[in-house]
Design brief:
alpha/beta; D-Maltodextrin-Binding Protein, domain 2; 2 domains; 10-stranded mixed β-sheet; 13 strands
């Protein structure tokens, strides 16, 4: 083959490679919670938090574009159930597995228990929560075991949409325990977001043992048939998790 022939062949390979990338790459709408700091939330109408930072980083490796649309959690779930897009910061359970295709875990969320100072108690098993009024997030799953205990009536959980209102209810004595995501970091963000809570921050105590460690995922309804995009996402996620950069993205110094 002549030099001219080699050059032509090389150009064809490059063009084919670029076309393949364009064909495989997708623009994916992904819904999420607009008020779950510091994991995912809106800050002056802009997406913010740990998960958006991870998605932005993974775009570089997958070639896909992730268009995050953050809404109150129940609305985000409804849109995902209607196959309007995927959903993130979602827990995996048996019921959801029948409807969604899930990614590998993106981030492990410590779901913690917050009480008022002077009302601390030893928490070791779910039996320690029986007879107490808990405050939780509307539409949230807390894992198979906790969800089953709630469904069976063993645990009483009052649901609402935001961490602020949950802690205000705790402060007013309307609930006994507030369920808060992302451990102490999540509690700190909520306290700082409300002057009344900030002024009473010394009244809140987080129990040492979390309710559950909850892996958060990306998921799409099976009807959307986006397994190739999930495979690209998983491959890039596994590679990222091996790096110090991932630790920095989730707020841990390597």
């Amino acid at each position: 083959m002549t030099i001219k022939g080699y050059c032509s062949a090389a150009v064809c390979v490059c063009v084919l490679f670029c076309v393949t990338l364009r064909v495989s790459a997708e623009n994916l709408v992904i819904y999420g919670d607009n008020s779950y700091p510091p994991i995912i939330y809106l800050d002056n109408d802009q997406t913010a938090g740990i998960l958006p930072a991870i998605f932005a980083r993974l775009e570089k490796d997958t070639g896909d574009t992730y268009e995050l649309r953050l809404l109150p959690w129940k609305r985000a779930l409804k849109n995902a159930q209607n196959s309007d897009g995927g959903i993130t910061n979602i827990s995996r359970n048996e019921a959801r597995e029948k409807f969604y295709d899930f990614s590998l875990p993106i981030y492990d969320d410590d779901i913690s228990l917050v009480v008022l100072k002077g009302h601390e108690f030893d928490f070791n098993t779910l039996k320690d929560l029986q007879g107490k009024k808990l405050g939780g997030l509307s539409g949230a799953s807390y894992g198979e075991v906790v969800d089953q205990a709630i469904s069976n009536g063993e645990l009483h959980v009052e649901r609402e949409n935001g961490g602020q209102s949950r802690l205000l209810k705790l402060l007013a004595g309307r609930i006994d325990v507030a369920i808060i995501g992302n451990g102490i970091a999540g509690l700190e963000v909520i306290l700082a977001s409300d002057p009344g809570l900030e002024a009473n921050r010394n009244q809140f105590v987080m129990l040492p043992k979390p309710l559950v460690r909850d892996p958060l995922h990306l998921a799409f309804s099976k009807a959307m048939n986006v397994q190739p995009a999930l495979e690209r996402f998983n491959k890039a996620l596994v590679a990222l998790k091996r790096t110090d950069e991932y630790q920095q993205l989730i707020g841990i110094k390597p």
